[in-house]
Write a structure and sequence with these properties.
Helices cover 11% and strands 40% of the residues. The protein is built from two helices and eleven strands; from the N terminus they run ββββββββββααβ. Strands 1-2-3-10-5-8 form a six-stranded antiparallel β-sheet, covered by helices on one side. The protein has a five-stranded antiparallel β-sheet with strand order 7-6-9-4-11, covered by helices on one side. The chain is globular and about 60 Å long.
Amino acid sequence: MEKGITKASDGIQGMSWNVVGQTYVPKLLSHDAFVWHATLPAETFVPPHIHPTQDEWIFVLEGGLEVEFLGDVHKAGPGDTVRMPMGEAHGIFNRSGAEAKVVFGVAPARKLFDLFILLDGVSDPEELVRLSAAHEVDFLPPPPPPAAEA
């Protein structure tokens, strides 16, 4: 990690990414941790996934999020910290009707920074899942459709 300050309006080396319709701005990167600011528009989400090699957290600055741990829903608002231990499946949803601003972090950094570089602007779900799996983020398959009544 380089010493110094990452200004509020800047990302590391001027970087910013569009990942699943959300804006991610990297703020800190070292071997041990990766931290980024995120703007999550209303009604956007990150589908359920697992980080098998990283702990993850979110500090909510503005707005609200719902985090689902295999159906167990937790609501977080300004000032709250969401803890997502490695190996725990979780999905992140902004169902608040308003934009949310948060700070994400993972430890150790592993391959997530490199993944976000590759995911910038990717809109094909299959490509997103493929790239993520190659960078230690495993998306869960979507739930099966409801059974049709006979």
